Automatic annotation (TrEMBL):
Cofactor comment: Binds 1 zinc ion per subunit.
Protein name as catalogued: Mannose-6-phosphate isomerase
Any GO BP annotation: carbohydrate metabolic process
N-terminal signal peptide: none
Residue ranges annotated for the Phosphomannose isomerase type I catalytic domain, each copy included: 6-107
Amino acid sequence: MLYPLRFTPLFKERVWGGRRLARFYPDLPPGPIGEAWVLSDHPHGRTPIANGPWAGETLSGLREHLPPERDAALMGARVLARGEEGFPLLFKLLDAQDDLSIQVHPADDFPGLPPGERGKTEMWVVLEAEPGARIVHGLAEGVTRDGLAAAVREGRTVEAMRFLTVRPGDVYYLPAGLVHALGAGLVVAEIQQSSDTTYRLYDYGRLGLDGKPRELHIDQALACCSDAPPPAPAQLGLPEPNRWETLVSSPYFVTAHGRCRGDWPQETDPGTFEALMILSGAGAIAWPGGGEEPLAPGQAWLVPAALGPYRLSGEFDALRVRVP
């Protein structure tokens, strides 16, 4: 039986985290929670299915039970034809109460990747931003890779960064190799390749939750960073109701924003699963066979590629992610 799957988030304590994810999750555990992994099948955190006959099972556990034709019905023929191991994406909500480290992620072909890891291309949608909140989005104008290396050696890393002041609704694409960092005062939705590899370039001399200096990975970061101009940001804006508008189209994911108002018929693409992240509002999802469940902010859903027609209803904003 295949049906839209809702997932129970996993919470990650981070030295830079806070408490603002409690507005999505009233049962947020104590401590500085920096990340909610809302849909993941990465070995560092597999989110369990929360609804229906497969409740309690992880996505990889479910797929082990499926014959190849049903796995294709879940994941999509085009996704499986890519030949990747496991589920290809990871979805998060992040609460940056403090500045994150200045960091860079490797590409798929980086020779230093840990065994079994992918590269890490990602995107951010800014949900909350305190006045003056900033991000690092690439290198400052005129700074090359060699110039960055010199700045790091001379203790001038921050001077080599391109800082942008951000606001709610901003959308940033972060291809592998782009130096980046979230600043304090931000809550963002993050869509990324299924990877947990980050190379820290600079971390403000901060101690970790264990009271020890956090590890830097300067050689790896410099080896995989790019000095290409960063992609231009986008904005959520006010889309026409009941219409998907593409925000980011990458080799790994195509993300669209939609604003449901009333009844909104949908149709899956048999080549790829659909992932839905509910950002705000309330509604419902209904599918063939009589299934229907409520939608709420902070939820992530995986809609099987072969489901065909289904319906969204209510008044809410969501992201829809497909594999190209």
